[in-house]
Amino acid sequence: MSLLDFLSPSRCAPGTTTSPLRRALADADPTAVQDLWLDGKVEIRGDLDLVVPGTREELVRLTPRRGFLFTEDDPAEVVARLREVGVLAYDATGTLAGIAIEGEQLMRRLTDLDLDELPAAGPLLSRVTAIVLRDEGERFRVYVPQELAHDVAVAVLDAAAGLPNTGVRLKPDPIPPPQAPSNPGVRTLLWCQGQCGDLL
Q1: Which of 49, 97, 120, 181 has its CB 3.0 to 4.6 Å from that of 146, i.e. a possible disulfide?
Q2: Is residue 25 classed exposed, middle or buried when 0-12, 13-18 and 19+ CB atoms within 10 A define those classes?
């Protein structure tokens, strides 16, 4: 049976893959937001009771017959192992992009999910379906479709920049407007040139 190795970033030559978050997170504070694109993610369909997660794995059940296994091992090898127990499994590492987010206050700005009832799948930023997991403390992991990842990351950073003590600044400080001349006569002349040019 084909394991569709071409879907696995772990099977690609070094330097041939790149994160969809690379531009959005290039200047982000890694203590607040971190790129988890290469986290191992395996989609599973079938009887999830047949799946026994390893010590470096976490199973997230979306429905009784569909879920994701997040693994620190080689996802392609995990796929082969799962298929041997009788479930369909695919390496979804290249399909989903992951973002680590620090701070419960920030997460509450991003989702209405109950943060005490994670892991769960639900809306992020009102419109994007995400898988959300909680680690120790106030560290969260969010996984979204890779084609939406850049926009999601930008929105996450915008939300973080609006909170105190995050150290996140996405956008450069705006260029201050030019100062008006101190001479009132010059100021009046400049205004007239701008407003009455068609009449002169």
Answers
A1: 97
A2: buried
Sequence-distant (6+) residues with CB within 8 A of 144 are 96, 97, 99, 124, 128, 129, 130, 152
- pLDDT values of the chain reduced to their tens digit, one per residue, 200 residues: 445 554 565 555 565 556 667 888 888 887 788 888 778 999 999 999 999 999 999 999 999 999 999 999 889 899 999 999 999 999 998 889 999 999 999 999 999 999 999 999 999 988 899 999 999 889 999 999 989 989 999 999 988 887 765 544 444 444 454 555 555 544 444 344 454 544 44
Tokens of 80: 């082969």
Instruction: Answer for the pair 40, 120: CB distance below 8 angstroms, yes or no.
Output: no
Dump strand ranges (E) for 15-136: 33-35, 40-45, 57-63, 66-71, 88-91, 96-102, 120-124, 128-134
Tokens coding 79: 């796929």
